[in-house]
Amino acid sequence: MENILKQLPQKAKEAEAENKKFFAKLKKKPPKHLDNLMQELHDEEFRKTDCLTCANCCKTTGPLFTDKDIERISKHFRMKPQQFIETYLRIDEDKDYVLQSVPCTFLGADNYCSIYDVRPKACREFPHTDRKKFQQISNLTMKNVAVCPAAYNIVEEMKRLLNK
């Protein structure tokens, strides 16, 4: 896994121009079966990918925290939401709540999340490759292929299948 993670940013950079072109085409005219295809590709990839051997998303990026996330997680810690915010979060340039630092504070040395059952929505949905209307999140996907080997593999397979 370590080798894959070392190579991933370079591989994503090499595929960037091709991916931009592919996603632009996909946005203009998404195939009718795109949502089903994405669900199949996502499920297939995650049958062979174990996030616990990687956790690169938790090590290199941080999720956005919604108000609901903050409420749920602060309750889990028996803290007031404001106390949770002051302890763990900051406001980024887009005025969103994000972690004060990465790797994620809640990531253990064993790659397990200490707040897994109450984790933020962004973490639950990552890498967003099974989302409906997938073509609408191409910018996010372009970022995720540089972080998540599974997202990279899903996009590569998607291009292979749809560029026939």
UniProtKB/TrEMBL annotation:
InterPro entries linked to this entry: Puta_zinc/iron-chelating_dom
PANTHER family on file: PUTATIVE-RELATED, YKGJ FAMILY CYSTEINE CLUSTER PROTEIN
Protein name: YkgJ family cysteine cluster protein
